Structure formats: structure tokens, C-alpha cells
Amino acid sequence: MSDSVLEHKALTRRNFLKATTGAAGVVAMSGLAACQPSTNGPAEDNTSSEVAEEIYRSTCMGNCSGWGCILDVVVREGKVCDIRKPDLLTPDGQPNPYQDICLKGYTNIERLYAPDRILYPMRQTGERGSDNWERITWDEAIKEITTKWKAIQSEYGKEGVIFMSGTGNSGAAAGYADRLRVLMGASLISQAYDNAGSMALGAHCGWGVTYGQNELRDLPNAEVVFVWGTNPTEAQPIDFHFLTSAMENGAKVVTIDPVFTTTAAKSDKFVPIRPGTDALLAIGMCQIAIKDGKEDALNLKKATVAPLLVKDSDGKYLRLSDLGKAKAGAEDDSILVWQNGEAVPMTMGSDPEIRGHFEVEGIKVQPAYQILLDRIYEWDMDTISEYTDISTETIQELTDIYTSGRAMIYCGFGPDHFANCVTAYYGMLALMDVTGQENKKGAGLCATDYSTAHAIGIMPGTKAGLDGFSAGRTVYAPHFAELMDTGKTGTMEFTPRALFSYKGNPIGNQPNRQSWLNSFMKMDFIVVADMFMCETASYADIVLPVSFLFEQTDLMSSFSPYIRYNERVVPEMGESKCDFDIVTMLGKAMGFEQYFTQTVDEFLEAASTNDTAASMGVTWEKLNEEHRVWAYPVEPVVVGETHQPITPTGRLEFYWEDATPQESYITEFDFNKERCLYWEPPAEAWYKNEKATKYPLCFISERDKFKTHTMFGSVSSLRELHPEPFVRISSDDAAARGIVEGDIVKIHNDRGYVVCRAAIDAGVRPSVLIMDHGWQKWDFIEGHYADLSGTYTGARWAGISFYDNLCDIEKVQ
Ligand SMILES: Nc1nc2c(c(=O)[nH]1)N[C@H]1C(S)=C(S)[C@@H](COP(=O)(O)OP(=O)(O)OC[C@H]3O[C@@H](n4cnc5c(=O)[nH]c(N)nc54)[C@H](O)[C@@H]3O)O[C@H]1N2
Ligand SMILES: Nc1nc2c(c(=O)[nH]1)N[C@H]1C(S)=C(S)[C@@H](COP(=O)(O)OP(=O)(O)OC[C@H]3O[C@@H](n4cnc5c(=O)[nH]c(N)nc54)[C@H](O)[C@@H]3O)O[C@H]1N2
Ligand code: SF4
Ligand SMILES: [Mo]
């Protein structure tokens, strides 16, 4: 590696330990000795008070529940030296509840001045991953990339170039590469993270202003909270206060998780469920609620699809057009319900039937609720209890607690990471519908990330003025390896030859890492745009240096009710550039000059000038003046109260007549099964799976406070607190293998292995191993934790199954 290119490679575990000698060492390492963070107190001669301070408005970034926490960035003598939290008020004068800065947020100074930042375009001179780099000029980089892209497109078709984006930056301008993709007709790998779980949640009430569910500001109104497959103390540190407020208001809190998490420790009850069986628990609770007379028939009839008649023949709703009384698809082609012995339009069904089987003019039908009930009673209590590993008494107790007051399910994405993930969410939603725990304040479902307020009004318009152009096809990440291996997945056939990856680190974050490396090696050409030498960048042919957040101008709207106009705090370091400028250069060199004439501010002005923004009082001038503009309902969003479902039926849906695969290329699809709640075991991580005799343990991951995925991983002060990966193992599993605290262990299966230290933890369920997520190849003693996971996915929505794997563990030393 040329020394002028990267002053340091990403810190390996060993050289990290050598380099880190305490906080002072960190500052010196970062070249910041002259400008210590003010939180460290003034220097000896107290000069800091004489130095003029400038405060700039920016945000943190990272796909954590903050994803853009508001930061006031303090600059002295041209250097960033402090980060402060502004005290913003909501429009009705309350402290903004979506505002805090976590531990990581304050370390952005270290990231800005980090030794592993990429500052120049670079070409890999050895083989991919060999870490031999030479510095090249921007002109050389752009020329080489666009020449190769043009050649590949003319040989393999436009789709031969494939783009992939991650979750590193949600800013409007940071997503500008999508414009180039459309112009080029390039294809896309959809990362599909959290995809199946979030789509399943959205299917219930539609993707409205709440991203589908009650907003977190409503959580403190709950009398009961089921924390279900989420660990907010680590994954939502700045939103955790909504849960503690509920606790302070007297809410009873139950945590359902295979692991005794910090959140579990603060709960009234902890239920260590067997991974991948959440839907069965919900099904068992529905059965008990119905048996105990806790079914809310009124809610089912009025607010849900329960009474809508479904035809036995094709699973579609019975409509007036089926009886020849309206034109199919016309506005008056109402769905019918059964009332007083006849089928009537649903708007006339004041007290419709929700159970039974009926016949309408020779057409056999049943209310959607009957179908749900049949799915619920497919399972008997003994099987539910055995599979979930939760006793019937406990399921009874959980049902009693859940139905004892206004109840909120606070769920996250633990259950999402199995191939059967949709089942867990279908189960939770059905439980809410059956018991009527919804449509009122303090009742319903809050979901990690999605139930945060997300400002509205920004419409980036990356595709504005591109009529006549269309992007190539989209392949979901779990299908990508098959496409690369065989040139085909489902009915889709094409050959990606060049990859452009930006804002993401798929090699570190996608499951079945070896299959991704394989796919990478099959590519003719890989370009990665990143600010750090992440694992994916290390396998690139060309790396483009992206400027750090504080060097960028952008508009942020996710994870906060404020639209945030981030101003540039300091100039771009080295030759780094923001994604917008990089894409503009690439676009021009690809021959699309006339489509890349905007400056970033012109683009952002257009993005914030639209009817929705105007209706929220947002203007470009206001954003320039105030930088943080509230653009969200002032009242907390409560589905069914402040906002009505925006589903095809206008009701809360637990039955989907139009359930189809997310992409038309997917061929294997059981329409009947996917229309309503069901449960089937995880694809691999199931104790009755044949593989379990050889590999009896399921390896899952969790969030920790010190990283956002692979970001912040090389921040020295954070590494000092959490220097290396370790796997947590139950006392029983450890004892059975002679493993003791601190041992070096090897976790392995047929896909790969990882070597790291073990920590014995009585709070981990037997047969489960858990490690915090976000480590990269240089962090492990050997191997990689992402080599262990498989590429299983659901049928209706392609999700990612990080946890759906079996393995075993042995002591190495
Ligand atoms: N610090 C930090 N915060 C983050 C992130 C980060 O990387 N770092 N990432 C952000 C992102 S993108 C996401 S998607 C969210 C995720 O947010 P969460 O969903 O809250 O994330 P996890 O900590 O993975 O929590 C999942 C919990 O589910 C449990 N679990 C695993 N399998 C099962 C199961 O089968 N059933 C049940 N009931 N529980 C199970 C795990 O033990 C864990 O405690 O976090 C966001 N916040
Ligand atoms: N084993 C396991 N794997 C997992 C998970 C798990 O629980 N267990 N969780 C998964 C989930 S839910 C998610 S959401 C994914 C997240 O996976 P990714 O989206 O890949 O997340 P990050 O590791 O944060 O990678 C973001 C990258 O973008 C770069 N970046 C930041 N800002 C910018 C910018 O402005 N421009 C450009 N070009 N680059 C920028 C960062 O330096 C970093 O390299 O991880 C998934 N992987
Ligand atoms: S790391 Fe996430 S939660 Fe922490 S300050 Fe940054 S955006 Fe907010
Ligand atoms: Mo995620």
C-alpha cells in the first residue's frame, strides 16, 4: 500500500491494542492534540475561552434508531472539537422527545479525523482483498470506471452493471446514485435488510405516516407492554425513554426474547422463547383469549377484515361483481359480508357474521376470520408449548397480562432474521386484532425504527426529468448468489459483471459471506464508494473516497420529526467528495451531461419544494434559516384514532387476498398459505431439523452500544470499552463442552467458522449462541461470524436470515 494513500489501514485487533493507550492517546492519534474536546475541560492556560467558537448544524448518521440525531458541531480554529445537543422544542412547546445523542454520536469527531478514512481514489493492485493499493487521480478513476462500465454494458447489456446501496446515510443527496442507475439502465441488488418483517407489519394497516404502526410517543400511554424480539437499551438507546416512561406510569412490562437482555432485566416478566417460534406463542395466546371470552368481536367486525367474505374457490373476496351487480373493479364493486342470512355490501354490515360457512348464489364463502381461526386451531396447546418451550401455564399468564389493560407490543427485528419471519409478525398482529388491543391510545404495536417519527415532505426527485429511461431489474440480496452462480434466479436471467456499492458494507453484513465473496470474485469489476476502508471496500478494484457527514450538505428526514438541513461544517478532507458530486462526475463521463446540471443545493431546494412540504410549513428559505424544521403531526400518531389504515380494504388486514411474491421473478409461491397467519419452522435453526444432530446450536446476533452495524468499529475510544468480539454461551452448553469464561472457541458449521473468545452467560437460552453484530474480518482471531449464516428467505417478501443457522462450538484453547 502506498503510504500517501492511507496513513493507517483499518485497525486490526492486535495493532488496535498497541495503539490505544487511553483517551489522550486517542486524541494524539487523531491529530487533534491542539483541539481537545471541550468536555475534557480547558487546557492549562485556559486558552480555549479566548478562541472563537463557531457552531454548525449537522447530524449523526447510521442506521440505528437515531439515524440522524441532531448535533450542534463546534469548530475552533478550523477544527471540529465538540459536539453538543441543542434543546429543540416541539411546536407545542415540549422538549423534543426524539432528540438525544448516544455514546457513539459524540465520537464523530474521532471518525472525522480517523486514520482509516479513505482520502484519495485508489486502485487495488494485487488481488481483491490483498490490500495493495495505489493512489490514482479522480480523472483516472472516473475514466477507468466509465470506460469499463460502457464496455460491460455493450457486451452484456445494460443490466451487466449492478448497483447496491446500504444504510450508511439516509440523506436525500446521498441517494443520488439512483439517478445514474436509471439513466444507465443498470440493475440493482436490493439489500433486503429487515424487509420481510417490516413489510409484514405494514401489510396490517398500510404504510402511512407512521410507517405502519403507532408512534413511539404513544408507548407511555400503555398499561401493558410486550417487548417482543427487540432490545431497546442497546438498539434504541435514544428512544428507550419511551419505555421507561411507560414503566414510570405503571405499565407492566413483559420481555419475550431467547436471551435475558438488559431490557429483560428491567421487565416484570421475562419469557425465554425458543428462537423462531413467536407466531406459535401468539397463536396460543389467541386460543386462550378466545376460550376466556377476551375476543373483541366488535373490534373484529368494525375495524378489521374479519367479516369480509372470502370465496372458497380462489381465496378472493366476494364482490358485487361476482353476482353481476356491479362492474368488476368499479368504485361501487363492494366487498360483501354476511348479515341476517344474506350477503350485503360491507358498508351496510352493521353486525355481520365473522364465523361460519355460507353460500351466496351457489358461491361458497366464509368470513376472513373463519380462515384465521382455522389457522389458529391448526395447533394444539401441547405442541405450542413444546415448540416454543413455554409452559401452558405461562402462556395463560401472558394472555391474562396482555388482556389486563391497554396493551402495546413493542417489537423489533430479532424474529425477522429467520426464513419464517413473517409468521412472527402475522401472529402479533392477529393477537391484537382478536383481543382488540388496537385503535386506541396506548394499544397496538410500536416497532423498533419504524415507530419513530419520520419527518415528511422531502421528495428527493432523483428521477426527475428522466422520462424515457428505466432502470434494469432488481434482484433481492438472498437470491444474488444463485444469480451469479447460474445466471438465473426464478424466471430472471442475466449476468451482472460490474458492481457499484455505496453506503453499505455487504461483505460484512450480508449472511453467508463466503457466497458473497464468491459472487464478488466472479465480477469483472467492483467499485466501492465509502469514507472508510470497510470490508467490502477491501475487495474493490477501485475505491472512491466519500466525504464525512460534517463535510457534506444534505437534507435528512428519517428518524426525527424534524427535517434537518445539514450545513457543511468543515471542508472536505484530502480529495474526498460527497456521493452527489461523485455521481455527477460519473454521470457526465457516461455521456449524460444534460442530466447532471444541478448543484447539491439546487437539488435539495427542489426536494423540499412540494405540496406536502408546503402543507407542513416547510420552505427552502426556512430550512436555510432554521436548519431544523418540524414536519410531522403535532399529536402522536395512533393507528385507528389519529390515522386510519390505508390498506386496500380500508381496514386492518390479517387476510390478504392479493398476497403475491414481492418480485415477479420469484416462482415458488403458495398463494393460499401466504394469505393469512401460519407457522412453519425456521429453514435451518430448528431443533427437529436433521442437521440439529450434528449442529445443535443456533447462532444469533444482537446490537451493542458501541457500533452501528460495522460503523464506529474502528473508533479507538469505543474499542477501548469493547475491544473484541466474544460469543455468549449458556452455562449448560459451555459445561457440556468443557468451555470456561475467556476460552478461545471455534464456532463452526458446513458453511464456515469463526474463532473468538467465549463468555459464559446464564441468561442465554441453552442451544443458543449470541454475539453482537458489526464486527469485520480483521476483528476475529480467525474466520468470520457471517460465514456461518445461510441464505434462506421467505416467499412473500425476500427477507434476510442472519439467525437461521445451526452450528456447534468447541474449545480451541
Ligand atoms: N447500537 C445499535 N443500534 C441499532 C443498530 C446497530 O447496529 N447498533 N441497528 C439498527 C437496525 S438497522 C435495526 S434493524 C435495529 C434492530 O433492533 P432490534 O430488533 O431491537 O435489534 P436486536 O438487538 O438485534 O434485538 C433483537 C432481539 O431479538 C432477540 N431475538 C433473536 N431471535 C429471536 C426470536 O426468534 N424471537 C424473539 N422474540 N426474540 C429474538 C435477540 O436476542 C435480541 O435481544 O436496531 C437499530 N439500532
Ligand atoms: N450477522 C448479522 N448481520 C447483520 C445483522 C445482524 O443482526 N446480524 N443486521 C443486519 C441489518 S438489520 C442491517 S440494517 C444491515 C446494515 O448493513 P449496512 O447497510 O451495510 O450497514 P453499515 O455496516 O452501517 O455500513 C454502512 C457503510 O456505509 C458507509 N457510509 C456512511 N456514510 C456514507 C456516505 O455518506 N456515503 C457513502 N458512500 N458511504 C457511507 C459506512 O462507512 C459503512 O461502510 O446489517 C445486517 N447484518
Ligand atoms: S449513533 Fe445513532 S443513536 Fe447514536 S447519535 Fe448517532 S444516529 Fe443517534
Ligand atoms: Mo436493520
Please provide a written account of the structure.
By secondary structure, the protein is of the alpha/beta class. It has 26 helices and 33 strands. An eight-stranded mixed beta sheet has the order 5-4-23-22-21-6-7-18. Helix 7 runs parallel beside helix 16 (421-435). The longest helix has 19 residues, at 138-156. The chain is globular. The chain starts with 12 loop residues before the first helix and ends with a strand. The model is unreliable at 1-47 (pLDDT under 50).
Residue ranges: pLDDT <50 for 5 or more in a row? 1-47
- Gross geometry: globular
Determine the mean pLDDT: 92
Q: Kindly estimate the percentage of residues that lie in beta strands according to DSSP.
A: 15-25%
What distance separates the N and C termini? 34 Å
In total, how many beta strands? 33
**Structural class determined from secondary elements:** alpha/beta
Strand order within the widest beta sheet: 5-4-23-22-21-6-7-18
Helix content: 25-40%
**Which radius of gyration do the C-alpha atoms yield?**
27 Å
What's the helix count?
26
Question: What kind of sheet is the major sheet?
Answer: 8 strands, mixed
The hetero compounds bound to this protein are: ligand MGD, iron/sulfur cluster, molybdenum atom
Features:
alpha/beta; binds molybdenum atom; 6-stranded mixed β-barrel; about 800 residues; about 25% helix; binds ligand MGD; 8-stranded mixed beta sheet; disordered N terminus; binds iron/sulfur cluster
